[in-house]
Each structure stands twice: as C-alpha cells, then as structure tokens.
Amino acid sequence: MKFLNICLIVCAALIANTKCDDFEGVKLTAQECKDEVGATDEDVETMFKHEPAGSAEAKCLHACVMKRFGLMNDDGKMDKEKATDILKIIASGNEEQESLGLEVLETCVDIDVDEDHCEAAEDYRVCMHTKAAENGFTMARV
Q: Which region is the signal sequence (predicted)?
C-alpha cells in the first residue's frame, strides 16, 4: 500500500498544475530542485518510490518541490488550503478517500516542525505516512 507522504503531495501538486499524463513535467520540476539543492538522481528516484528521504539533500529536495507548488510557505509551514485543494483533485471523487485524506491533513498540517525547512518537509512526511497507515488512506491515483 502506498501511503500519503511528501512525495505524494508533491506529485499531487504537480498533477494539479499539469496534465495527469505529463510525467515529464513532474520529472523536470524534480530535476530543477535536485540541481538547486545538490540532491542525487537516487534521491529523486527514492522520492518517486515514496520512500523516506535518506539524506539532508533528499529532505531539501522534498522541501523545494513543496515550495514550488505552494505547499510549503516561506515559514516552512504547510499551506492547508493548497493541500486540501490538491487532496480533492487526487481523491477523484472518492468521498471515502477524500475524508480519510482530510483526516490525515487535519492531524499533520499544524504539527510542530523543525525550523529548518528541509527537516520540516521530512517531519510532515513522517506524520502523514504514519497517519495514513493508521486510517487507511491510500493514493492509488498517484
């Protein structure tokens, strides 16, 4: 089961801003962020596999992509409104999954996160991954 994590929110953000079949656009954004933060191709691959960030650069990759799509503000906090909009897009009318996803967001959007934005991105990923595992929220579309 694929759990909600930062990568999935990132992918959802990309879907919200590009056509669903525009995976090249998704990869381009990840590549731009990879270059910006000094991440590796492996870090990008790990992100797309929905796995935990294994390095500081991988965490910064997540933060960069979140910021590019307005999911993380200048204070390193998640934008609840944007995350909710994206969740509705990826739920694709599945009311049960939308409800479970909103529960995940409600739990995690206002958690205390590290002041470092890269660490904050990982804090959000861990919270959402854990909550999704508890409540059964999946992201099959992404």
A: 1-20
How confident is the model over 24-83, as pLDDT tens digits? 777 888 999 999 999 999 999 988 887 899 999 999 999 998 898 889 999 999 999 999
Token pair of 72, please?
A: 């993380």
* 25 exposure class (CB count in 10 Å sphere: 0-12, 13-18, 19+): middle
Q: What is the pTM of this model?
A: 0.79
* Spacing of C-alpha 81 from chain mean position: 14
Structurally, the chain folds into a number of domains equal to 1
Q: What is the CATH number of the domain that holds 62?
A: 1.10.238.20
28 belongs to a structural domain: yes
